[in-house]
Design a protein that fits this description.
With 355 residues, the protein is α/β, with parallel strands linked by helices. It has helices at residues 23-35, 49-52, 60-66, 70-82, 94-102, 120-126, 142-154, 180-188, 205-214, 241-258, 267-272, 315-318, and strands spanning 10-16, 40-45, 86-91, 109-112, 132-136, 160-164, 192-196, 219-223, 281-284, 299-302, 322-323, 338-339. It has 2 domains: 10-258, Alpha-Beta Barrel (TIM Barrel), CATH 3.20.20.70; 267-350, Antifreeze-like/N-acetylneuraminic acid synthase C-terminal domain (Type Iii Antifreeze Protein Isoform Hplc 12), CATH 3.90.1210. It contains 12 helices and 12 strands. Helix 8 links the parallel strand 6 and strand 7. 33% of the residues are buried.
Length: 355
């Protein structure tokens, strides 16, 4: 992710099995995702079905029809790379991890789904990968996450992203608990992304999708489809081109509003804080004659059209100084008009001001 003045969105469009084994459909998805100028496309890789699930699993026959060969994945990867998309490979079996590793730099990240987060054999394969490792932590407790993180760290892996969020077809947003992302980030000291699974036609979908960005988390994973609402696999939470475009723009705005956390004032803040035009300046409450001392009786605070060089907090230090010239009522007090000798501010001045 490029470093900029502000956090910038990193949006991963997840294709999942929405293609249902139709490589032309997936190719069109890649084209649309690239047109939206998103950052990455995520594919579910599966090469050995029997390594992933039992034959008696109710989805076994369906998943078998949705699988692509290594040659087909090579073709798919090449298209995504030509479109300047990062590739996130969610690997469902050890064989697909091995395949992704052979692609080397062509794959930006390998993700382990929450179903495999504590799978010893999957973890043992993924530690051989040189780029980022993403851990899907939906439905995982702290002990589950700790096991996977400790395993990876023990093997020298530190480029890790924890992907928060779970799919419950679709996810009810009252169950998301986004504030938990802060806790996870602080506990493990790794960046945390948000995988949103809000129903595609929920009126709050856009704002929920960017809610984590408002909190300062710039990575969003979102299911994508060519035909929103059409009953295909994982369609419940998949958005189309128009909605993804809105989410992308909203996320950019959210992160700009979040800012960079620097405590120094921005230029607009400095302008807003100008003494005189904005913050009240110290002025003569009445005419002050040359040689007369400044006091609580002859000074005041007012907004003025001109800027003042004396800060409000220096007020008590001015008391007792003598006017070098005649000062008219409402004139801004500055050092050219008074005989000022620097003196430290005594805390007693706040309670016992000498007039």
């Amino acid at each position: 992710m490029k470093k900029t003045k502000y956090l910038t969105p990193y949006i991963i469009a997840e294709t999942a099995y929405n293609h249902q084994g139709d490589i032309n459909y997936l190719s069109q998805m890649i084209d649309e995702i690239a047109t939206l100028k998103l950052n990455a496309v995520k594919f579910h890789l599966l090469l050995n079905l029997d390594s992933y699930m039992k034959k008696t699993h109710p989805l076994y026959q369906n998943v078998k029809q949705w699988m692509f060969t290594e040659d087909q994945w090579n073709e798919i990867f090449s298209q995504a790379i030509k479109k300047n998309l990062d590739i996130v490979a969610l690997c469902d079996d050890a064989e697909s991890i091995q395949f992704a590793i052979r692609k080397k730099k062509k794959v930006s990240a390998i993700e382990l789904h929450a179903t495999s987060i504590n799978d010893f054999f999957m973890l043992s394969e993924v530690i051989k990968f040189d780029n980022q490792i993403i851990l899907g932590i939906g439905g995982s407790n702290i002990n589950d996450i700790s096991y996977a993180v400790d395993f990876l760290r023990h093997h020298g892996k530190h480029d890790i992203l924890l992907m928060y969020g779970f799919q419950s077809y679709p996810t009810n947003y009252i169950d998301i608990n986004l504030s938990k992302m802060y806790t996870i980030r602080d506990l493990f000291n790794f960046p945390v992304g948000y995988a949103d699974h809000t129903r595609y036609d929920d009126s709050n979908n856009d704002i929920i999708s960017v809610a984590a960005a408002i909190m300062g988390f710039p990575v969003l994973e979102k299911h994508y489809t060519l035909h929103p609402g059409k009953e295909r696999i994982d369609y419940h939470t998949a958005v189309g081109k128009k909605q993804m475009s809105r989410i992308r723009d909203l996320m950019t705005t959210a992160l700009q509003v979040y800012g960079n956390g620097h405590i120094t004032l921005s230029e607009p803040e400095k302008a807003y804080g100008n003494i005189g035009p904005m913050k009240k300046a110290i002025v003569a409450r009445q005419n002050i004659r040359k040689g007369q001392k400044l006091s609580l009786k002859n000074l005041w605070f007012k907004r003025t059209p001109e800027e003042s060089t004396i800060q409000q907090k220096q007020f008590l230090q001015l008391l007792g100084s003598k006017a070098k010239v005649d000062i008219k009522k409402d004139d801004v007090i500055d050092f050219s008009k008074i005989e000022y000798r620097f003196k430290p501010l005594n805390l007693e001045h706040f309670t016992k001001v000498k007039k």
